[in-house]
Write a structure and sequence with these properties.
Elements: E1 2-14, E2 17-29, E3 42-51, E4 56-65, E5 68-72, E6 75-81, E7 84-94, E8 99-106, E9 114-116, E10 125-126, E11 131-138
Antiparallel strand pairs: 1-2, 2-3, 3-4, 4-7, 5-6, 7-8, 8-11, 9-10
Length: 140
């Protein structure tokens, strides 16, 4: 197995806007020269947030991966798992210094994304569809 690559991470703040992000590029080969299963060359994430005040923040987490290969019924690495981007969004509001209300939506646009194909056995693992939750956190 041989793997080379580059990983970048960064964060910046521009007034009320903050951005955190990362990018990983991987060029990997197994001993037989094939790419590893389910290993995309590019994986990335970006989280911009707007802090309107000490109480109110709105943001999104953007997570994505390039296409990858998986084993299929006709042989090794014969199924292509498509690239995908998933957007998660959130709003937080501090009700008091100890109580924070959060509304979060994961996979906001209900992207159909596959993370593995179960080695060609006729099944695939899909990224969870859109979920929305509200939570109240209280710090003692």
């Amino acid at each position: 197995y041989r793997s080379t690559g580059l990983e970048l991470e960064g964060a910046a703040r521009f007034g009320v806007i903050s951005v955190v992000g990362g990018l990983t590029y991987t060029d990997a080969k197994q001993a037989d020269g094939r790419a590893p299963k389910r290993q995309a060359k590019v994986v990335y994430q970006l989280t911009p947030t707007v802090n309107f005040s000490d109480e109110l923040s709105i943001g999104a987490g953007i997570v994505g991966t390039g296409k990858s290969q998986d084993d299929g019924p006709s042989g090794p690495l014969t199924i292509t798992l498509p690239a995908y981007t998933v957007v998660n969004a959130f709003v937080t509001y501090a009700l008091t210094p100890k109580a924070t209300l959060t509304l979060a939506a994961n996979n906001l646009f209900n992207e159909l994304a596959y993370t593995e194909s179960n080695d060609g056995r006729g099944a695939a693992r899909a990224y969870t569809g859109r979920t929305v939750k509200a939570s109240l956190r209280y710090n003692f």
